[in-house]
Amino acid sequence: MVSTIKVLSSVFKLRIGVFCALAAIAGALVTKGAVVAPGPVAAVAMAVLFSAAAAGAFNHYWERDLDHHMVRTRNRPFVTGKFKSSPVWPLGLLALLIVSVALAAVEANALAALFVFLGAFFYGVVYTVWLKRRTAWNIVIGGLAGSFAVLAGAAAAAPSLSPEALILSLVLFLWTPPHFWSLATALKDDYAAAGVPMLPVIMDATGTNRIILANTVALVASSLLPGLFGAGWLYMSAATLGGGWFLYKSVALVRNPGRPAAMSNFFASLIQLTLLLTAVMVEPLLAH
Q1: Distance CA 222, CA 191 (A)
Q2: Domain span at 117
Q3: Whole-model pTM above 0.70?
């Protein structure tokens, strides 16, 4: 039973889905002074979780031929045959996506539902099907999936979309490339073996790491913009500390290229995003 749950959690990429759901909640709470109705926001967060799970499982299904060549993924269920790659899977996942979009539409509004759909579409189709095997910039455009999660939650709270929500969606957009490129740097041989043109595969370490650093600088700068709209001390502290740590690790990656520094930068990105989302969700509680 436990092993089955672990396999399903992996196939549906539930860790990513949970992050997306938290991003949706943060999107709802980030607007200063907005009155947030818990019911619609909770429904949209659940819809984001389900739609992200559908897109994540489709990613496993579609990439089973690539996963066979990679050490990290060669034991995934669609590769080993534990899960049969029949048409039932994409049809079932499409049904899950439809239910997710309908949930957001009924419990919140059409705009939130649109963003729920776009998040899954950009990860499942734009990134996985159209871009991943064709261009090193796949994750840049695919990274919009996280941005749409923020916007879905924001639309559930205030369909007009506040500047703070748009900034947080920009933060998620800029966060994804340095986060993923750091991991791809550590797993460069895997992606090369599978023939996937990730940035670290087609560009030398110096160029890749400088792009990661430049992207991190843009990310940290954007994460500080809410200060112009009255963000509180908790958010600004989280943005400064988490962003500073991510920048420090990105500079270290440029100075000392290699797998250890790349993984360290990858974990720094997780710390930075976790601090930001936590601050966004906790700060409204401190105002009461």
Answers
A1: 30
A2: 1-136+145-158
A3: yes
